[in-house]
């Protein structure tokens, strides 16, 4: 194996920039690739006892990072390979050797920790398909990096063989397939925008519902129209549809019964019910919003106020009590 000697060519500022950029984007790509594989496991093997961030939010973030960062790594690696083909001595610059050996060290430690964790969980009887797949994902990525850079250190020439070129192309292709698969899970950007519009509609309806109940608590009757909920003191204004800017529909069905309606562009809670696979824990916010499930199109939600629960007993209210007025300033002697 090559060693760092005093005869190594001196690194230029451009070399330092390229090597740091290459290693930085490599590490970021590896971490995001592992995170992406983890989300595949979370999607197809959900754990109802684990609290975690929305899978689709993590997928969007990791896909966006890989799409930007990984091509930068490929471009810098290709450029350095092109330069090394002209001047093979460039492969022996000290900063490159240090960073390559650092990558080998990190990869080796990751593989060791991964295997130790696997054996530990196995001996404790805690080995599940979900955990095993995540261990396998880390092992494949870390071992792949270790093998590639170990081979890169040992190869005597700067020209890649046909076999190695095919392996690298296949690796890039697999990463591309993983990224494309993520797009199929999260949906198109247009679809995500529609989901966000519907989520805002549900949020608006929840606020309106609370204000209607508060209005009933204070006046012992339901408002005849949503405009009656507007309050200059509290600053509340009845929200409008975020996409069309049209007011939401409201109707009185009885002394204690009212109805709120909105038009939705997606069906149900896309984050937790898409394709019938639960992707959030059973005690998540999405599961608590079961009474706001909806289909595509105009959907109405009927609510009945229970006086025993929402009755304004001893000044009880959905809103916090207003803060007392500040006392006038007083001159306090020293």
TrEMBL record:
Keywords per UniProt: Membrane, Transmembrane, Transmembrane helix
Record has Cell wall biogenesis/degradation as a keyword: no
Domain DUF5671: 15-149
Ranges for region Disordered: 313-334
Tagged with keyword Ion transport: no
Native organism taxonomy: Bacteria, Candidatus Uhriibacteriota
Positions of transmembrane segments: 16-38, 58-79, 99-119, 131-151, 167-186
InterPro entries recorded: DUF5671 (IPR043728)
Protein name: DUF5671 domain-containing protein
């Amino acid at each position: 194996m090559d060693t760092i000697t005093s005869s190594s060519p001196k690194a230029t500022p451009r070399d330092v920039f390229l090597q740091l950029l290459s290693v930085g984007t490599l590490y970021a790509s590896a971490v995001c690739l592992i995170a992406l594989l983890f989300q595949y496991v979370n999607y197809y093997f959900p754990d109802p006892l684990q609290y975690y961030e929305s899978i689709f939010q993590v997928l969007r973030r990791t896909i966006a990072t890989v799409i930007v960062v990984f091509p930068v790594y490929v471009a810098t690696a290709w450029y350095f390979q092109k330069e090394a083909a002209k001047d093979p001595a460039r492969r022996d610059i000290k900063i490159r050797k240090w960073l390559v050996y650092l990558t080998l060290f990190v990869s080796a430690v990751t593989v060791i920790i991964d295997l130790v964790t696997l054996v530990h969980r196995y001996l404790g009887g805690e080995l599940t398909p979900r955990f095993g797949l995540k261990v396998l994902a880390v092992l494949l990525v870390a071992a792949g990096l270790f093998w590639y850079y170990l081979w890169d250190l040992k190869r005597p020439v700067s020209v890649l063989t046909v076999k190695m070129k095919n392996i690298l192309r296949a690796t890039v292709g697999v990463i591309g397939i993983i990224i494309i698969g993520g797009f199929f899970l999260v949906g198109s950007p247009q679809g995500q925008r529609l989901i966000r519009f519907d989520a805002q509609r549900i949020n608006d309806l929840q606020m309106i519902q609370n204000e209607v109940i508060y209005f009933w608590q204070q006046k012992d009757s339901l408002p005849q129209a949503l405009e009656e909920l507007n309050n200059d003191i509290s600053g509340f204004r009845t929200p409008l549809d975020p996409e069309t800017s049209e007011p939401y529909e409201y109707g009185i069905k009885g002394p204690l019964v009212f109805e709120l309606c909105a038009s939705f562009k997606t069906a149900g809670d896309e984050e937790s019910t898409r394709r019938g696979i639960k992707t959030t824990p059973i005690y998540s916010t999405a599961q608590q919003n079961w009474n706001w499930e909806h289909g595509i199109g105009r959907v109405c939600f009927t609510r009945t106020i229970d006086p025993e629960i929402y009755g304004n007993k001893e000044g009880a209210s959905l809103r916090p009590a207003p803060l007392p007025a500040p006392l006038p300033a007083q001159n306090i002697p020293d």
